[in-house]
Every structure is written in structure tokens, then in C-alpha cells.
Amino acid sequence: MQILHFDIKLHNILLDIDFIPKVADFGLAKLYPRDNNFVPLSALRGTIGCIAPEMISRSFGVISNKSDVYSFGMLMLEMAGGRRNADPDAAANSSRAFYPSWVYERLSRQDLGEISVEMHELERKLCLVGLCCIQVQCHDRPAMSEVIGMLEGSVDGLQLPSRPFFCDDGHTPVVGSYHFCSELNGVSEEDD
């Protein structure tokens, strides 16, 4: 059996007395067999801005352990940037409205000076791995074991992944996402 958390975000990662991270808040979590390729759910779970696309629409793929990989990628981008991934106060047509888009643009242009005056290797690694994890199609995301390998390895071995759909120039999901969030009501689990 394995656990799908469904709400990986900065607020749910706590540090113990030795600064060892611990995942908290398993209220939305679901236990499922490792041999299942997907998890049946009847309602949205998680926090807007961290939710994998397949949690919102099955046209993006099936819900699986890769859904938590997406959320973990968004968490890494927030850690690297020191800011929320979606900024409702930014202009709707601004790439700064959706931080992953802004990061992708800078990394693809090798314009690292705008991300940080002296971007540390760790920040660059978090950005590159985070962008790998937020690929829209779940089959394009790495497994969590691969994510760990990327984080433990050298940043020199990492390449900029393909542009996530939500980072395209014509797509700024922030305004719609926040409107969508305000209309969400109950969340329930499909009976098996």
C-alpha cells in the first residue's frame, strides 16, 4: 500500500527540533495499493495553486502518485522563489502572475540575473526539478525516486524540461484559478 497525500504544500511541511522535514495534515490523504495505476475520486482535493491538472479535469490524465509529484514540484518552485506560485495581485497578462512561467522564461533565456542576483546552485536545482515535476501530463513527470536522485545529484546534469502547458505565453491561469477556487464547495471520496 502507498499513501497519496493530495495536499503537498509549504504549510504542510513541518520541521522537527533537528530541522528534519515532516509531512503533516493527512486529512485529504488516500491509501491505495501500489499496483493500482490510478485512484478513483469523485471530487477535487487539495489547494488551488498546488493541485495537479488531472485533479481538476480527467482530460489531463488519471490521478496517481504523480499527482503528488506535481504538488511537490510547485512546492520546490515556491521554496526557490520565496514566494507563492500564483499572485492574484499581479496583472492578469503578466508572467509574474504565475511564477513557474516567469522562472521558465528566465531559465530558457539563460537570464538568471533576474531570478536572483547570484542564483545559488540549490535555487537553480529546485527550479529545474520543480519544472520537471509540474509537467501537465502525468506520464511526463518523474517518479518521486527520480526526483530524489535529481535533488541529490549535480545541477550540471539537469536540463530544462519542455515548457509546461500552463507556462505558455497565452496562458495565465491565475485569474480563473482564483475565481474557480471561490466556487468550490464540498469534497468527498468516491465509494469503492
From TrEMBL:
Primary location class: membrane
Cellular localization per UniProt: Membrane
Matches recorded under PROSITE patterns: PROTEIN_KINASE_DOM, PROTEIN_KINASE_ST
GO cellular component: membrane
SUPFAM superfamilies listed in its UniProt record: Protein kinase-like (PK-like) (SSF56112)
Alphabetically ordered keywords of this record: Glycoprotein, Kinase, Membrane, Serine/threonine-protein kinase, Signal, Transferase, Transmembrane, Transmembrane helix
InterPro entries for the chain: Kinase-like_dom_sf, LRK10/LRL21-25-like, Prot_kinase_dom, Ser/Thr_kinase_AS
Protein name, UniProt field: Putative receptor-like protein kinase
Organism ancestry: Eukaryota, Viridiplantae, Streptophyta, Embryophyta, Tracheophyta
